[in-house]
């Protein structure tokens, strides 16, 4: 039997699949970096860091910003490290808190549905197919954003980054979706930027690249 014929539910990723969230994320990242007197990254660079949750996003941003600042200081004949720098771990902790604050202000205005997303979700929902949202985005930001974009009504299950111990690409979020929808993992189709490959056949969920 065709594997697609066994599909009884669809799980969607959010950032980069349904929503262009780069403007809002970039605003939050750059404002957080600027607050710590670090170089700002810009959207083209921030886009390459998106996809593995806010913690990883800020780790990547801080690593780049510290390297960029060291390069700039070296070009001016200054030591690469400022004697007044706080430890990197502490800097990362502060940066993440700043990101959350700035993203709360920028998430809705800086996020936009990709073309035809609303119509596609509406058509699938009308057919009675259960839809789920699985994102690494911090959970407190997810529901307000879905409401602002007027797509919350289409999802039976919503899993944010704080709802699981292991974020995507670990299979835990999709296994949780399958459990909540009372589906076998192989009956769940994932629509995401990249296919999530699960190594254990008994826990394998179908994946679709879009």
From TrEMBL:
Highest taxon of the lineage: Bacteria
Protein name: phosphoglycolate phosphatase
Cofactor: Mg(2+)
Alphabetized UniProt keyword annotations: Carbohydrate metabolism, Chloride, Hydrolase, Magnesium, Metal-binding
Cited InterPro entries: HAD-like_hydrolase_sf, HAD-like_sf, HAD-SF_hydro_IA, HAD_sf, PGP-like_dom2, PGPase_prok
Species the sequence originates in: Klebsiella pneumoniae
Source species taxonomy: Bacteria, Pseudomonadati, Pseudomonadota, Gammaproteobacteria, Enterobacterales
GO biological process: carbohydrate metabolic process; DNA repair
Keyword Hydrolase: yes
Protein family per UniProt: Belongs to the HAD-like hydrolase superfamily. CbbY/CbbZ/Gph/YieH family.
Xref: Pfam families: Hydrolase
């Amino acid at each position: 039997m065709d594997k697609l014929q066994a599909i009884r539910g669809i799980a969607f990723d959010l950032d980069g699949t349904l929503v262009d969230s780069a403007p809002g994320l970039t605003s939050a990242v750059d404002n957080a970096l600027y607050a710590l007197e670090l170089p700002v990254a810009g959207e083209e660079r921030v886009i390459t860091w998106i996809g593995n949750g806010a913690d990883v996003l800020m780790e990547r941003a801080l690593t780049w910003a510290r390297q960029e600042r060291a390069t700039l200081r070296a070009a001016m004949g200054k030591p690469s490290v400022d004697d007044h720098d706080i430890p990197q771990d502490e800097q990362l902790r502060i940066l993440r808190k700043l990101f959350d604050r700035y993203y709360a202000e920028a998430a809705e205005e800086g996020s936009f549905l990709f073309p035809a997303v609303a119509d596609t979700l509406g058509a699938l929902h009308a057919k009675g197919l259960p839809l789920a949202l699985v994102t690494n985005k911090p959970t407190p930001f997810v529901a307000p954003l879905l409401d602002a974009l007027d797509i919350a009504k289409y999802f039976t299950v919503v899993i944010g980054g704080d709802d699981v111990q292991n974020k995507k690409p670990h299979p835990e979020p999709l296994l949780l979706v399958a459990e909540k929808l009372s589906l076998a993992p192989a009956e769940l189709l994932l629509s995401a930027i990249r296919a999530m490959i699960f190594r254990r056949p008994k826990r394998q969920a179908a994946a679709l690249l879009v």
